[in-house]
Amino acid sequence: MCCLLILAALQPQCLYQVQQNMRSQRNQYRSYWIHWHELIESVSKNPQEPISIAIAGGGAGGIELALSMQSHLHQILRQTQQPIQNLEIHLFQRQTELMPNYHSSVRHQTQQILTERGIKLHLGETVCKVAHTTYREIK
Fold first, then answer.
1. If DSSP codes are grouped into helix, strand and coil, which group holds residue 138?
2. 9-24 pLDDT per residue, tens
3. Which of 19, 23, 93, 131 is most exposed, with the fewest beta carbons within 10 Å of its own?
C-alpha cells in the first residue's frame, strides 16, 4: 500500500511536531512536491496497489488538496482501468467543523461534497506527531 501524509495547515503550534528537515515552510512544500511526484510515478507504474493519503488540515487549503489529488489520481486509475476504490483520502481537522471561518452553509455544502466524493473526514481529531519518512521507506 502506498501512503502519503500532507500537511495542509502548517502552524507553528504544538499541533505538529515535525522533525528537523521539515522545519521551514519552504522545506515542507518542497518535501510535499517530491513525495507527490514519487507517488504519481509509483501509481502510474503500479496502479493496482492500494493508495492511502492523509491530509492534516481541514481549511480551504486542505480541502483543495484533497479534491485535486483525488481528481488527478482517479484519472490515472481510470486510464489504467483500475478501480477508483484503490484510493483512500483521509482529511484530519482539529476542530469539529471544516473551514471554521466560513459561513455555516459553505461549511455544510463542502462537507457534503467531500463525503459524496468518498473522502474520509476525521473531525475533532488532532494530529500530534508527524514522523518524516521518505515515500520509498513507506512502500
1. helix
2. 433 333 334 344 444 5
3. 131
